[in-house]
Write a structure and sequence with these properties.
single chain, about 120 residues, alpha+beta, Alpha-Beta Plaits, four-stranded antiparallel sheet, 2 helices, 6 strands
């Protein structure tokens, strides 16, 4: 069965063509820098959530794994704060999300994996 189709806000162009966008399910894990305080953690998670919703995505679940030791040092850090999100995204908005994450210094690593239905 096909997933529901949602019209993107760019669906009405000057030529009046309709573009139908398929939303796909993803697991999105990211690691926040360990020097960020607990109050700052919620701000950073909200900031990343805003990146997703600005791109037309939806967040279905957020799971805070907390501070954990990294398997190997990243940016000279041995631990980080892990967050797992279940999201629905338009595949075309992934590039913009990745660009914004790379510009966010507090996010030291991320992984976006498509979940098969």
């Amino acid at each position: 069965m096909d997933p529901p189709r949602i019209l993107n806000r760019e669906s009405f162009s000057k030529e009046r063509r309709h573009i139908i966008v398929d939303m796909r399910n993803y697991e999105f894990t990211f690691i926040i820098h360990p020097d960020i305080e607990d109050e700052g953690i919620t701000d950073k998670v909200e900031k990343v959530s805003q990146f997703i919703t600005e791109g037309g995505g939806q967040i279905t679940n957020v799971d805070h794994w907390g501070r954990r030791r990294l398997a190997y040092p990243i940016q000279k850090q041995k631990e980080g704060y892990y967050v797992l999100m279940q999201v629905q995204l338009d595949p075309q908005s992934i590039r913009e999300l990745e660009r914004k994450l790379k510009l966010t210094e507090e996010v030291i690593r991320y992984l976006l994996v498509r979940v098969e239905d």
